[in-house]
């Protein structure tokens, strides 16, 4: 039996898991995704479409540079978008069949709390986009506005690129780490239990701190898989998004005990 440390809320405890446990979560996530292909791939495809719409909107507004930070912000808000996947894995664990309607209905049990957690993650995302815009203007100048086709080369030719990447990556890493700690298990927990989003966030932060080695590997795997999925203009998210979503449910079940 894994050792356990009592935390708030009193009915929840954090389990300690092996450092390589994230590989098991991915394996179980793949199993759930294959067993619920229609739901999983529909949600993944919807996310890809959403990414295309946002990118097109930013391009039409003449702020093509914002596509990169907006895309990077996906790591912050993705746990919220995966809520129906947590519900699907939960039903599968209970031996119940699932439809997309079932998954969406299950999320309504703690809908207000999920919405508040989503609002918090969205605020972090919007703050990151604002910071990225300020950094872009600071390092490249307000008048730096090449077309989308010329933007990568124009940035590569600029002496400001390296300091921009260093500072921007630092800010982005800090915000992403904060969002990861808040959402690592809180959203699947809200799908599973009727608790407040503050309680769920507290549990999530302590789960990450108590299992920092395993969660560092888990965060790295998420970044790697999602980064590769984003390269072909978001298309890889059709598979990676549901895979990570289902796996996150199993991370929650491993890390948090009643």
UniProtKB/TrEMBL annotation:
Keywords: Membrane, Transmembrane, Transmembrane helix. It comes from the Bacteria. InterPro entries: DUF2189 (IPR018692). The keyword Transmembrane helix applies. The chain crosses the membrane at residues 38-59, 65-87, 127-149, 161-187, 217-244. This is Putative membrane protein. It comes from Humitalea rosea.
């Amino acid at each position: 039996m894994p050792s356990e440390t009592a935390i708030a809320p009193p009915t929840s405890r954090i389990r300690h898991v092996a450092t390589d446990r994230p590989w098991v979560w991915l394996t179980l996530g793949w199993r759930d995704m294959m067993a619920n292909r229609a739901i999983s791939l529909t949600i993944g495809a919807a996310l890809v479409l959403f990414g295309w719409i946002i990118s097109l909107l930013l391009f039409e507004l003449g702020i093509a540079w914002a596509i990169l930070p907006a895309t990077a912000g996906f790591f912050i808000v993705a746990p919220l978008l995966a809520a129906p996947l947590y519900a699907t894995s939960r039903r599968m664990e209970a031996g119940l069949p699932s439809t997309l309607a079932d998954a969406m209905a299950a999320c309504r049990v703690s809908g207000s709390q999920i919405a508040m957690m989503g609002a918090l993650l969205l605020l972090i995302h919007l703050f990151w986009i604002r910071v990225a815009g300020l950094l872009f203007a600071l390092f490249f100048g307000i008048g730096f506005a090449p077309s989308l086709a010329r933007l990568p080369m124009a940035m590569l030719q600029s002496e400001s690129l390296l300091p921009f990447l260093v500072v921007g990556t630092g800010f982005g890493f800090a915000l992403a780490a904060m969002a990861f700690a808040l959402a690592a298990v809180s959203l699947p927990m809200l799908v599973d239990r009727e608790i407040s989003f503050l309680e769920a966030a507290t549990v999530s932060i302590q789960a990450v701190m108590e299992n920092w080695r395993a969660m560092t590997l888990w965060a790295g795997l998420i970044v790697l898989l999602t980064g590769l999925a984003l390269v072909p203009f978001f298309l890889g998210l059709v598979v990676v998004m549901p895979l990570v979503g289902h796996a996150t449910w199993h991370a929650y079940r491993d890390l948090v005990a009643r």
